[in-house]
Each structure stands twice: as C-alpha cells, then as structure tokens.
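Comment thread on ticket #2218

A.B. wrote:
> Attaching the input chain for the structure job we discussed in standup.
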Amino acid sequence: MVCFWNDRIELDGISLAPILKEYREPCNVDAAALVVVESIISSACVVRTNLSNLIANANPRRISVVAPVMFKGAEKSPRRMR
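C.D. wrote:
> Ran it. Output below, let me know if you need it in another format.
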C-alpha cells in the first residue's frame, strides 16, 4: 500500500498537485497489477502526479484507476501519460 497526501495549486492556468507527504509499505511494483483509488477525479492532475511518482522506476503489468466520482473529460488526462 502506498498513500500520498497532495496539495492542489494553479500556476499560470496549469493544475499541479505536489506531494506533501507519503506512506509506503515495502512493495515491488514491477509486474504487479496496480490499483489507484481516488475519491474524486476532477482534472486528474493528482492521479497523474501520484502515478508518475509510483512507477518512476517500475514496470507494472496493468494499471487501473478507480473513483466513485469522475468529472466529465477527466479520463483523458491520465491517458496522455502513455
């Protein structure tokens, strides 16, 4: 399990979500199925920031992002990471 606490800021019209704090249990993300759980996805900048941090040096087999609420159009932003 990995948990991130983010800030949310706007800078020159761009949404940023710097990580303020994190908790990480020892884990190997390589070849794992990763599930990212978010309470609300509005612009996906938090998901993108946290996912980038988590897989910077790893190669997960599959990534699923789940949330009970997703604003219209927010699903396009994480797909641009490919």
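A.B. wrote:
> Thanks. Noting for the ticket: Residues 45-54 form the longest helix (10 residues).
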